């Protein structure tokens, strides 16, 4: 509209100028062959037309077409895989400034997606490669006919562990994908939240008994309206981490408090804790502070838990210090049924 308005205004001005010149030529007979220099007005009109045309062309090229050309070049670079390019947003035309801003935001998002894709490919390839290589190695060992029954049983159990690791990774990826596609269309139903947490504790009993951990529980009867299937996954991930990173003979505290606005669940341990850098990134997909992979995991559990809590319009916070343990505090607001 800005360009159209300027063009229309220029045409009106040019029309006015030519009408005025035509009026002068007609009334004063400036183009009469009998008058000396009678062609001068014609030359003046031609010169004025060239000046106006050149001015309009320069304006259109500088203010309208050049920004479009810059955008075309930038988009060509993005098409070639350059997601670092940014356009100068400080432009004289508001529409061009908004267009450049939208382009810069788009490139930043594409750059984030590309980074996530690269991390995803490298992490997934590593996570799948390790158990697959393990299973392959034990399959080759089982081909040895001189193995004892005990050795065969050990190898089979280790192969089973590898398949469990692959299944766990695949399940978490599918659950994350399901959450991202499903959005806020979760089915909320009323259920006993305290009983659900107890079920998870019983399910993980072999793990915490093996490490001789002491559980401090405070789980009063609590009815909550939420998605029972996904919330079970939250408690499973958080408690499994608390067990995994606790010291032998340590303590784990699990408290449930019902408030007017909702419920608060705190899960804390006295284990190895985390640095501030790790604390700031633990909810990122595929992030693992233990790069050596000594601890089992794939960096998806906490990202999944955070997304589930947010789909319940809640919050999850972590407070941790190295060698002092970690505390996860979750708030789940009261949500109307089937909201």
Automatic annotation (TrEMBL):
Transmembrane segments: 6-28, 40-60
Catalysis: reaction(s): ATP + protein L-histidine = ADP + protein N-phospho-L-histidine
Highest taxon of source: Bacteria
Domain HAMP span(s) in chain numbering: 62-115
Predominant location category: membrane
Keyword Transport in annotation: no
Gene3D superfamilies noted in UniProt: 1.10.287.130, 6.10.340.10, Histidine kinase-like ATPase, C-terminal domain
Organism: Enterococcus hermanniensis
Membrane protein topology class: Multi-pass membrane protein
GO cellular component, one term: plasma membrane
Positions of the Histidine kinase domain: 123-336
GO molecular function: phosphorelay sensor kinase activity
Entry keyword Chaperone: no
Protein's name according to its UniProt entry: Heme sensor protein HssS
Compartments, as annotated in UniProt: Membrane
Protein purpose: Member of the two-component regulatory system HssS/HssR involved in intracellular heme homeostasis and tempering of staphylococcal virulence. HssS functions as a heme sensor histidine kinase which is autophosphorylated at a histidine residue and transfers its phosphate group to an aspartate residue of HssR. HssR/HssS activates the expression of hrtAB, an efflux pump, in response to extracellular heme, hemin, hemoglobin or blood.
E.C. number: 2.7.13.3
């Amino acid at each position: 509209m800005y360009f159209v308005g300027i063009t229309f205004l220029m045409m009106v001005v040019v029309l006015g100028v030519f009408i005025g010149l035509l009026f002068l030529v007609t009334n004063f007979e400036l183009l009469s062959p009998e008058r000396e220099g009678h062609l001068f007005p014609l030359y003046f009109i031609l010169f004025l037309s060239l000046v106006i045309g050149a001015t309009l062309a320069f304006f259109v090229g500088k203010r309208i077409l050049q920004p479009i050309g810059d955008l075309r070049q930038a988009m060509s670079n993005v098409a070639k895989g350059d997601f670092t390019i940014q356009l100068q947003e400080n432009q004289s035309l508001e529409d061009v400034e908004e267009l450049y801003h939208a382009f810069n935001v788009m490139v930043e998002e594409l750059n984030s997606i590309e980074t996530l894709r690269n991390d995803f490919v490298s992490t997934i390839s590593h996570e799948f490669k390790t158990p697959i290589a393990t299973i392959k190695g034990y399959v080759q060992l089982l081909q040895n006919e001189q193995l004892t029954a005990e050795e065969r049983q050990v190898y089979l159990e280790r192969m089973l562990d590898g398949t469990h690791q692959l299944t766990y990774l695949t399940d978490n990826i599918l659950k994350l994908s399901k959450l991202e596609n499903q959005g806020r269309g979760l089915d909320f139903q009323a259920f006993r939240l305290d009983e659900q947490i107890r079920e998870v504790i019983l399910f993980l009993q072999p793990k915490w008994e093996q490490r001789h951990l002491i559980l401090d529980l405070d789980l009063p009867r609590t009815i909550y309206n939420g998605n029972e299937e996904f919330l079970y996954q939250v408690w499973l991930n958080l408690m499994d981490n608390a067990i995994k990173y606790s010291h032998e003979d340590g303590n784990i505290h699990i408290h449930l408090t019902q408030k007017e606005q909702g419920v608060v669940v705190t899960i804390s341990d006295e284990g190895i804790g985390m640095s501030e850098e790790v604390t700031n990134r633990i909810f990122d997909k595929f992030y693992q502070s233990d790069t050596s992979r000594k601890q089992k995991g794939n960096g998806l559990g906490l990202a999944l838990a955070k997304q589930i809590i947010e789909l319940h319009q809640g919050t999850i916070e972590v407070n941790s210090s190295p060698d002092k343990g970690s505390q996860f505090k979750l708030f789940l607001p009261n949500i109307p049924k089937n909201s």
